[in-house]
Each structure stands twice: as structure tokens, then as C-alpha cells.
Amino acid sequence: MPNCLYLLSPPNSILCRPIRFSHPPLRSHFSGTVAAVSDSVMASNSVRVAAAQMTSINDLDSNFATCARLAKEAASTGAKLLCFPENFSYYGDGDGLRVAEALDGPVMQGYCTLARESSIWLSLGGFQEKGPDDKHIYNTHVVVDDAGNIRSTYRKIHMFDVDVPGGSSYKESSFTEAGNRVVAVDSPVGRLGLTVCYDLRFPDLHQQLRFQHGAQVLLQPAAFTAVTGHAHWEVLLRARAIETQCYVIAAAQTGKHNDKRESYGEALIVDPWGTIVGQLPDRLSTGISVADIDFSLIESVRAKMPISKHRKPIDYWKSASL
């Protein structure tokens, strides 16, 4: 099992803070008892982050209450950044247009206030941002600092237009306008590369974030379907971490949102060696997983396997048609 501190908050239960241990290839992130972890002074070369796992519904107030509780829990662990999943503020049944707002509207401003009052950075993705016309929204990943200021926004590039084998059909492009910018932003937990959900399947985006935009931490908020999550979620996250030598923080929607929509769950934090260092005890509970971004580990992995020096431009190789 991966070593991690997790906070589990199922409805009507007492907050639990167990720790699990293992020996990853390069460095262990936690040791000792829970009290020792909570009271210890973090090394100057590391910083704590958290990934949320939750079940959003078609109720803005209820979802905000859950997010506020998780933000308080994350701040109590010393986390400097809390990542929420796609559709964190609202998860309906094809009615995203109805609730879409501008980023200076009351919903997003409420989360900016939450970040300021909790003294924690928030990764909010994706948000139903009002689109270019009355028939489209943007699926937007918003990063808010601990003073409540929006530091960066990324509009999801890859649309989920898929017939899931054994599942349902989806056509996100029918109501969502695709973005066209690759976005990275500096933060107290390193340089962040922003993505949303289906973007996970496109390694070239993550390669750009690492090698052209200098990302150290990739943020992957998602609402993966139960079918695709079971088959591909973990392996894709670990692959993106390994091939970019970045931490990956993957906040996840989980469980049934309504009669038609169900998400896989399993919020994870993966280190640059591909080791899972943050994970809740199960993939269906509401709670946060906490781990430490160790900058010396990033440097060590990149120095020992310098793929940034070994990469060749795509036109380096001659191609042939067979």
C-alpha cells in the first residue's frame, strides 16, 4: 500500500486520520504516528498538498458546504493547496448551461472567499463558466490563491465525445466550447500544469506542460466514468507522472450523482517516479488525501534519468509510408 495521510469524511461519521506506510523506490514521505506527522516541522524542500474525493449533485449550496468542510480539513493538516474535482460546484444531468456563470459571478466568488478564509490555495476544475454564446459553456479549471485571487484559468481542450464500451454515450462538444491554450502557473507548491479530466488521455498536452512550460506538478481534476475509471484511471495517471517526471494530483468525483451519472472515484497523488503517495482507503468515500511535494525528489528523478536532454524533435526521425 502507498504511504499517505488521508482524511476520511463519510456522511455522519467521525473524522478519521489513519496513516499507511510503504517503501517507495526513492524516498518515504511519512513516518511515525499521526500526532508526530501533524506536529512535525516539514523539511524546507517539501510542501503539503491535498486531493479531494467527493460526490457532487445538482445543488450548489450542498456542494459548497462539502467543499468548505474539506477545505477546513486540508488547512488543518498544513496543506498549502487543495484540489477539487471536475464539476465540484455542480453536477447535474445535462443542465450545465442553466447554472453557468462568469468567473466574477457569485458562485466562483464564493469559492474565492473560501480560499481566503481557509488560507489555502484552491484548484477548482472544471467550473461551468459562461461560454461564448447561449448554447455553450467553457469547462474551466480555475486556480485561486490563499488571498482569494484568481491566479490562472484553463479551458478544457479535449472534449469527451465518446461511446463508452458497455456504458453510455457522451458528447461534451454539443454544449461545451473547447479551449485553445496550454496553461501553467507558479504557486507555493511548485509550477502547476492545468488539465481537466479527458485531457488525461493526451500525453502531448502533458509533455508541453513539462518541457515547454516548466511544470513540476500536474493537476488532473476529473469525473471519470465507472467503466473507463476501472480500466484506465490509475495506469494513465502513473504514466503521465513517469513520462513527465512530475507529481500528479488527481482529484476525483465518485459515486452516483443522479439516476444517469456515476463516477469512478479514487483520488490519487502520484510522485515523479510513478509511486502512489496519496490515496483514500476506498474510492467511494468523501474525504481528502494528503501528501508532500518533495522538490528534491523531482530534482533527483530528473537528474538520474535526464529525459529532457534526451528528447528529440518529432521531425528528427525520417518517416516512411508503407
From TrEMBL:
PROSITE patterns: CN_HYDROLASE. It comes from the Eukaryota. CDD domains: nit (cd07572). Residues 47-295 form the CN hydrolase domain. InterPro entries: C-N_Hydrolase (IPR003010), C-N_Hydrolase_sf (IPR036526), Nit1/2_C-N_Hydrolase (IPR045254). Keywords: Hydrolase. One of its GO terms (molecular function) is hydrolase activity, acting on carbon-nitrogen (but not peptide) bonds, in linear amides. The keyword Hydrolase applies. Gene3D superfamilies: Carbon-nitrogen hydrolase (3.60.110.10). The keyword Transport does not apply. This is CN hydrolase domain-containing protein.
